[in-house]
Specification:
The complex is a heterodimer of chains A (508) and B (360). In chain A, strand 9, helix 6 and strand 10 form a beta-alpha-beta unit. Chain A is an alpha/beta fold. In chain A, helix 14 runs parallel beside helix 15. The two termini of chain A are 40 Å apart. The longest helix of chain A is centred in the middle third of the chain and has 16 residues. With 360 residues, chain B is mainly alpha-helical. Chain B has a domain of 241 residues. Chain B has 16 helices and no strands. In chain B, helix 2 packs across helix 3 and helix 6 runs antiparallel to helix 11. The longest helix of chain B has 30 residues. Classes of the chains: A alpha/beta (508), B mainly alpha (360). At the A-B interface, helix 10, helix 11 and strand 20 of A face helix 9 and helix 10 of B.
Chain lengths: 508, 360
Amino acid sequence: MTGAGRHVLEVEGITKTFPGVVANRSVSFDLAEGEIHCLLGENGAGKTTLMNIVFGLYRPDEGTVRVRGEEVSFSSSADAIAAGIGMVHQHFQLVPTLTVLENVVLGAETVRHGVLELASARRTLADLSDRYGLPVDPDALVGDLSVGIRQRVELLKALYRDADILILDEPTAVLTPGEVDEFLSTVRELVGMGKSIVFITHKLREVSQVADRITVLRNGEVVGRTTPAETSEEELAAMMVGRQVSFTVDVGTSDPGEVVLEVDGLVVDDNRGHAAVRDCSFAVRAGEIFGIAGVEGNGQRELVEALAGMRPVVAGDIRLRGRSLLGLDPRRIAELGVGHIPEDRTRHGLIGAFSVADNLVLNRYHRPPFARGLVRRRSEVTAHAEELVATFDIRTPGVDVPAAQLSGGNQQKVVVARELSRPLEVLLVAQPTRGLDVGSIEFIHRRLVEIRDRGTAVVLVSAELDEVLALADTVGVLYRGRIVASMPSAEADRHRVGLLMATGSEAA
Amino acid sequence: MTTMRAAYLRMAPVSVPILAIVTALAVAAVAVLASGSDPLVAYGALIEGALGSPERIATTVGRATPFIGTALAMAFAYKAGLFNIGAEGQILAGALLAAWVGTWSFLQGWPGVVLIPVVLVAGTVGGFVWGLVPGVLKARTGAHEVITTIMMNFIMSLLAVWLVNSLDPIILRDPDVSVARTRPLPEAARLWELVDGTKLHLGLFIMLGLVAATAWVLDRTTFGFEVRAVGTNPESATYAGMNVNRITILAMALSGAMAGLAGAGHVSGAEGFLSPGVFVNVGFDAIAIALLARANPWGIVPAALLWGALLSGAPLMQQRAGMSTDLVRIIEATVLVFIAGDAMIRWLFRIRSKEEVSTA
C-alpha cells in the first residue's frame, strides 16, 4: 500500500534552533495514510526534535505542519492528541505504581459524580486489545511488567485516545531480539487496520523490515528520501553517518595466553534474594574475548556485578591469576586491573551532573596524578580529559560540560575511554552498544578488539546475539544462571547458540 | 538572542532570588494593608531597624552569625544527598557541651588562647556526635535521616531543658540567678565583641572561615568529590569504588559538627552562657536559608544576612507601623514560597531556566 493514501501529515520547511545548536534546518517530511514512514538518523540528528514539534511539545522557529491538509499550530501535546496524533516516547511515560488500565486512562479519565469510572474504560481497553492483537492484563501493575509489555501499554494508551497517526520514537531500543520481531509485526498489523505510522529509529535492519518509505536525517537536515527496494543497508548507513561504515569489525585472529580469570561454581543472589547465578563456571584467557550469550534476565547483570565486587558472592570463587577476589570491594578489584563497562551507563557508569573531565577519572580521582593527598589537581584532570577526548573522539563542546548533555554514544565513549585508558588484566563489558548508533557501535567494537590484542581478557555480555558472535573468540551460553555450553566462535552458529539460549541444551 | 538578553539570562542565579524577595515584599504588602498599616511605613521601619545605624547593622550581622553555620550544615548534608533536619538539635548539642566544658573548674585561669579553642572544639564534638547517630542509623539500618534527626531534635531540646532547668539536683543550672541558664563562661573563654554593646562577635569570622573551608572541601578535595558523587548518584559512586556508607556517616557527622560549632560560637560570643530556649527555630530557619542559597556555601552568607535583617528589623517595624512581629514571619514565608517556586519568578520576569535552554 506504498504511498496509496492521501497525506495525513505534512511538515514543510521546519527550522528549530536551540541556543548553539540547529536541531532542524528546513526539514520537510510527509506521511501518507496507511504507511510506515521511517525517520532514520544517528543520535542527535534531529529526529526526535522534529516529531516533538509535530506532537506540540516544541514550537518551530519556521515552517508549517499540516494534519489532513489543514495547517495546525499546536501549543501543547493535548492539541496534538485532539487532532488524532499519538506518540510513544523512547522513555516510557508510565506510572509504575498504577495498573495497566489506570495508566491507559490517565489524563483521559471518565469521571461520574466526582468518582473515577473505570468500567467503560475497561471494556474499551479489552476491545482495543482484541482488535489490534495487543493482549494485556488490565489489572497488572505496570511496575511488574516486562519492557515489551510496557511498550504494548504505551501503544494502547495512544489507541485509547483515538490516535490514527502514531509516532514511535526508537520503539525497539529497549526490546530484546524476540520482542523486536513481535513488535514489528504488531506495527505492520496496525497499519493494516488503517493507522499511519512515523517510525523513528537508527537501526537499519528494522528499516528494511518495516518501512514503506524512508527519510534520512543528518545534523538536522534531510539527506535522503528513499524506499527499502531502492536502497541497501550499506547505502543507508553511509547516508546516516556521512561516510562509508563497515558493519563487521575485522576481529582478526586471537592469540590467547594463559588463563587470567577463573569463575568456579559461582552463586549470586538478585535483589530479591533469589539465586540468579547458580553454579556458574568458566575461564577466560589473556588476549581472548569470552562472549556470554543469553536471553536477558538469565543472571547476566548479577554475574557481572559480582565479578566487579558490587554484589556479594553467596558461594563459589572468582580468581584473578590464581588470587581469589572474594570479599574485595570494587575499588580494590579495579586496582588489581579489572575494568568494568557497566550495562547501564547513566545509572552506574556516569554521574550525569558531573563534568566530562570528572567522569573520566570517576574511579581514579583519588590517585596521583589526579590528587595529591586529599587535594584534587584539576589541571591534571583537565589535561587527562582533553587527551582522552581527542584519542577516543568524544564529541563534546568541552571537558567541563556535564556528561548528561552528551549524546548516548558519546556518553558511552566516556565510559569506554575511562576504562580502557589504564592497564587492564580483565575487562568486563555489559551491553556495550545498547541504544547506540552505527558509527559509535563500530568504534566501540574496534576498541574491544584492540584491547584484546594487547593481551587483556575480555568478558563480553550482550543481549545482541550478533554482537557476541561477531566479536567473541569463545562463546559461552548463560541459561538460568549457568554457563550451559561454551565453544570456540568457529563452532558457534546462530541456530546452535539460539537453541541453547532458549532451552539450555542442544537436544531439541 | 541579543547580547543584552543573554546577559539578563546569565544573571539568573543572582537575579532570581533578588526578584523573588522583591515580589514577596509586594505580595506581603497585601497582608500589611489588611492589618491596617501602611506598607511603605512598615518596610521603611523594617529596613531602618535592620540597617539604620552602625549598631543596628552590627546587631543584624550578629543575628545572622549562627544561621550561617546551621544553614551551612544543612547545605553540606544536602550535597551528600542527606536532608539534615537536625541542625536545631545539633546546634544545641554543641552549645550545651561548650557551655559545660567552659565552666570546668580545672580549666579556670587558663588564658583565652587555650580556653576559646577548648570551648569551640567541645561544641564541634557535641554537634559531631549528634550528627553521627543519624548518620550511622542511615548507613547501617536505612533509617531515614529526616525522621531520626527530628527525633534527635526532641531528645536534645528536652535534655537541654532538663540539664539546665533542674534545681534538684542542680546539674548545669547557675544557682545564683533567677532565670534558668548555665553558669557563665570565664571571661577568657569569650569570643571578643566586634562592636561594643551588640552581639556581633568574632564568631562571625569563624563562620566565614567555615564557609570558605566547606566550599574548598567540596570543590577541591577528593572527599568533597566523594560527597557530591554520593549525593548525586550513589549507584555510580559504588561502581566507582567509593564507600557510600562511610561517606554518608561522615557527611552527616560533619554537618552536625558545623551546627555544633555555630552553637559554641554563640555561647562563647553572644551570650556567655546557655539558656535552653535560645535556639528555638534556628534549625528550621537554617533549612529556609540553605534553600534560599540553593545549597551553595557562599550563597549562604547573603541569605543568612537577609534572615538576620528581617529578624532584627522586626521590632522597629512593630513599633512604627503598629503591627505584629509575626508579620516578619509572613514575609519570610512568602520569600520562601517564591524561592522554592522559582518557576513563578522566572515566568513573571521572562527568565528561562537552564534546562529549557539546553534542551536539544
